[in-house]
Every structure is written in structure tokens, then in C-alpha cells.
Amino acid sequence: MLKKVWTCGLALIFAGTLSACSGTNSAAKEADYDTTKKMVVDILQTDEGKKAVTELVADEKMKKHLVMDSDTVKNAINNAMSSEQSKKVWEQLFEDPQFVANYAKSMDKPMKQMMKDLMKDPDFQKRMLELLQNPEMNKEMLQVMKSQKFRSHLKETVQETLESPLFQEKIQKKFT
């Protein structure tokens, strides 16, 4: 019986020692984690750390694995597009005929595709036919086309078309 009590006592002492060690070990792990976390944050804030992160993000393989939050991207674009500084940049860019031509070319296919898709849509076709066949609409269109305001607008439109970088580029290609 003494042997059993002795064995139980040793087992309790051993279990107590293990639990005490594991508690100390857990606290040590927590301290190590905090220390490591602080070191990593400090490293990332250095010029070398920033350079390393920049290189990592610029890496083509890494770009394939990065998934950007669409809301974050949307907000960034909205902020970039709506600031006063960006408005000035866009105004300057659109003064450059080559930029305007490239921009218009890049938008040409999506706009044509959208119109083709709409033309295939039965609901859109139905509404367009209803609109064009409406006698009141015909009367309004005829009245508008005869007006001095429309003629003035048509003249401006033709003038803008002639001054358009895309149109000028096409004309230059035709005559060269």
C-alpha cells in the first residue's frame, strides 16, 4: 500500500512539475512572439525592409499570388481620379493628341462590343424600335434637325471631328 501511495505521490509531483513547466513555457513563447513581432515590424520600417517588400511585390511570380481587395482598388482609383492634382494631370494628358488617340483606341473595342451586345438584346431592340417608330419622336427629331441650334451643334461636331487626333491620324494614313 505504501508503494501505491508513493507511486501516486510521485505521479502528482511529476504532473505538477510538468504543468508548472508548461505554464512557464507558454509565457516564454508569448514573450518570444512579442519580441519577434517587434523585430519584424522594426525591420520592415527600415529602408532595407521597405526595399525588400517593394521587390517582393514587384516580383512577377508574387503578383500572380496577390489578390487585391476590389473595394480597396475601387477606393484608391476614386481617390486618385477625384483629387485636384489628378484632375490637372488628366487635363494635361488629354491635351496630348497622341495620348488621346491611344486612349480612344483602347476604348474603341469595349465600346463597340457593348453596342453589339445591346443590338443583340431583344429587349433593347424592341425599345429602340418603339422609340424610333413613335410619331411624336419623329416629329421631335425633325423639328430638332431643322433648328438653328442643331445646325450650330452639327457644325461644332464636324469641326471637333476634323480636329480629333484619331481623325487626323486616319487622314494622315490615307494621304501618306
UniProtKB/TrEMBL annotation:
PROSITE patterns: PROKAR_LIPOPROTEIN. Residues 66-173 form the Spore germination GerD central core domain. Keywords: Lipoprotein, Signal. Coiled coil: none annotated. Residues 1-20 form the signal peptide. It comes from the Bacteria. InterPro entries: GerD_central. It holds the Pfam family GerD. This is Spore germination lipoprotein GerD. The lineage of its organism: Bacteria, Bacillati, Bacillota, Bacilli, Bacillales.
